């Protein structure tokens, strides 16, 4: 007599959370001028938005539905797909628009300590954790690679090739040539800096402020350079090669 075979138990449905870094676009009036700046960035770094989730922050604009449709159409024409919308009135959004998003915060934000603990001495253990937040790469960053490390600094002991990208929540140190894109302070850190031995980037950014190659003083090209923010402007400084 053949024994009935039991089917293997199906695994339960599992739900997992996963975090991705999104780029936030926040148009400012006049919107036509803002699109002009966006087009200039796209010409200098044509693949900048490729594969990136993009959030549209409309808190700086007063729009009606026609304005919003036009804005989304202009972005779609530039191959910038919008994952979600922040700062828009609920009456402007429906099933034909990207969904409303809320509760977002800058990546890497650190919660403020309780007032009751403000006078307490800092324990030694967090200091050890802070040291471990740096990421050191022994190999060069090759074309097409993206290195994303929002928890601290990134140090590249080799070069960053053209078409490669390094994104750090803190500062970026490149011991070789910087020919790709370096984005420091991506977790909302205006004090972050970029250092490299040979300055030939496609784009540099600190705390959301970008400068493409065409916007940078050619006198610094090929030099050992420090990039920093000063009064909301990107500044370049030469430093001595060790």
From TrEMBL:
Keywords: Cell cycle, Cell division, Septation. Residues 137-236 form the Septum formation inhibitor MinC C-terminal domain. The keyword Ribonucleoprotein does not apply. Residues 109-126 have a biased composition (Low complexity). InterPro entries: CAP/MinC_C, MinC, MinC_C_sf, Septum_form_inhib_MinC_C. SUPFAM superfamilies: Cell-division inhibitor MinC, C-terminal domain. Pfam families: MinC_C (PF03775). Residues 96-129 are annotated as: Disordered. Cell division inhibitor that blocks the formation of polar Z ring septums. Rapidly oscillates between the poles of the cell to destabilize FtsZ filaments that have formed before they mature into polar Z rings. Prevents FtsZ polymerization. Belongs to the MinC family. Interacts with MinD and FtsZ. This is Probable septum site-determining protein MinC. It comes from Methylobacterium oryzae.
């Amino acid at each position: 007599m053949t024994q009935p075979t039991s089917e293997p138990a199906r695994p339960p449905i599992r739900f997992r959370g996963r975090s991705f870094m999104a780029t936030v676009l926040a148009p400012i009036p006049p919107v036509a001028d803002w699109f002009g700046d966006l087009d200039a960035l796209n010409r200098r770094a044509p693949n900048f938005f490729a594969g990136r989730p993009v959030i549209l922050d409309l808190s700086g604009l007063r729009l009606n539905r026609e304005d919003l449709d036009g804005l989304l159409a202009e972005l779609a024409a530039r191959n910038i797909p919008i994952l979600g919308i922040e700062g828009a009135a609920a009456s402007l959004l429906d099933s034909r628009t990207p969904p409303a998003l809320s509760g977002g915060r800058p990546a890497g934000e650190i919660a403020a300590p309780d007032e009751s603990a403000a006078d307490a001495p800092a324990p030694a253990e967090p200091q050890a954790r802070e040291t471990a937040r740096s990421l050191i790469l022994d190999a060069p960053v090759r074309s097409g690679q993206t290195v994303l490390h929002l928890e601290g600094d990134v140090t590249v002991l080799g070069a960053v090739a053209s078409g490669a990208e390094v994104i750090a929540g803190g500062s970026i140190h490149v011991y070789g040539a910087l020919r790709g894109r370096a984005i420091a302070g991506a977790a909302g850190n205006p004090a972050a800096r970029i250092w490299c031995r040979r300055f030939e980037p496609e784009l540099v950014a600190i705390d959301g402020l970008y400068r493409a190659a065409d916007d940078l003083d050619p006198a610094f090209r090929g030099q050992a350079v420090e990039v920093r923010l000063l009064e909301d402007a990107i500044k370049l400084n030469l430093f001595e090669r060790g």
